[in-house]
Write the structure tokens for this entry.
Amino acid sequence: MEKVDKKFISKRIATLRNAKGISARAMSLDLGQSSEYINQIENGRSIPSIEGLINICDYFGITLSEFFDTNLLYPIQYKELIKELNKLDSLELQKIIDIIKLITQRHN
Amino acid sequence: MEKVDKKFISKRIATLRNAKGISARAMSLDLGQSSEYINQIENGRSIPSIEGLINICDYFGITLSEFFDTNLLYPIQYKELIKELNKLDSLELQKIIDIIKLITQRHN
DNA sequence: ATATTATACATATTTATACTATGTATTGCA
DNA sequence: TGCAATACATAGTATAAATATGTATAATAT
């Protein structure tokens, strides 16, 4: 997993903006910020605050998790399953994992 | 899309710390910060900087993407689980999902 | 050739807040 | 009783988030 640093953040935002096909000036107007600050961020001379990054992610229609997700963490089809698993406490979850391990043993 | 706000960040960190079974004081010493500041963050009176949050995520052994992923409340266990699930064929996977749904029914 | 548009960077300033320090209060526990 | 842990209030400092301005350059377009 790639380490998230200043460079990652700046490149990610520049990529998102270019993909949207919008100028830094237009983006800055939409966000109510100076275009120079957008420039500073995209060139790694400033790091936005978390609240600032939330606004930026909202602007691009992605979550913070997606912003920082370099790889695909888990297959999309497991999302509903994970939603169910969130209802379990950690002890129950561990039992589920143990059950599945019993099933998958023969697959090795 | 769930909104990530100050409250999410504070609760997430408190949950991670409690899961690790460590005091705010001990955590603050490990991170080289004041315990009062940890308290402020966990009670929503302060928001860490992105660099500060990177340190916190490193401390708990998770990525920023995992930190903000509302579907992954127990990232470590889920990673293990998904690794096992990938060994199953679709029929077996469906049976597992049915079992989990039976268990989670009473949680509603 | 020259406006215009977009990016880039330097420098300087303002403003906000991340983070610390200290004191007090409460709870649970040995 | 005393300690360990959390919680909050207040006040302060130091850092950096964010702005402002000016200059430079390259790419279009006029």
User: Anything to note?
Assistant: The longest helix of chain B spans residues 6-20.
